[in-house]
Amino acid sequence: MHSDLPSLLDAASGLNSGLFSFPRLSILASLYVLGPDGALYRDLKASIGLSDGVLIFNLRALEKTGYVKKSEVALEKKKMDLYWITQDGRKEFEKVREWLEEFTKITRLVK
Amino acid sequence: MSERFEKVLACFKEMDFHPKLSEFEDRLRMQKLVFLLQKVGVDCGFKFALNARGPYSIGLADQFFTHKQELAKLDAGCKLSSTEKKEVAEVKKIFGLKAAHLEAGTTYLYLTDEEKLEPYEAFKRVKKLKPFISDGDLAVGVSKAKELTFKPTEEDLKWLREENKLWDRLSGDGLKDW
What domains can be seen in chain A, in order of their start residue? Predict the structure, then answer.
């Protein structure tokens, strides 16, 4: 727990800055609650509301970091892409979430 | 294994639904069926929230993955009451297992019951959240949801009796000639 803004900002160096974007945080947050069950590409697209290009680009980036994995599943006889969060992804998302919570608290105090 | 999960297994057994945890489609069906069962009154006690996959219970998913063996055998230690058996039969009869209908119907019910949206607003929101479901499947799913949860009021019953009176009389009159 950090008590001042400079030390909290300093602690941010331990976070993966690649996660600090709306698409990536939205993807990880959506997959985090679903755990090993995962979500279909079409569900992510509809619930987050990103274009195909942006969603695919960010999913690939998250796959590369090892935070997200993909497999093929069948639904009503159609093949679809299923994404789920890995253990590393969960840990990193929790770190970012905690940091953001502290950031919100501290910046409220400053105000 | 928790009592509430035992009840879920007993319901699946009663429905003659034997899900495979490795199949995504079955995992989807399990979530949606338990949501519907709770809606009609089978008290399984799982909390559902709306997320990327529609109404979803993290606690329920956790039980599926923790108790794989029991799920595979539908090894339930509890028995359903006769009322619960009727409710299970109702869900099975009205919905069946088609994923698109289950997805559309449960999302619609969540929006009308939990978020208190008006039927038309809820329908529009389901269409936005599930754009990949065809208009036909969406209409059927929502209609099934309405059928499952429809409870006629005294006023509805009175109206139905009035509406049928004429037909009853006509059919009665027609039979007199025989």
Answer: 5-110 (1.10.10.10)
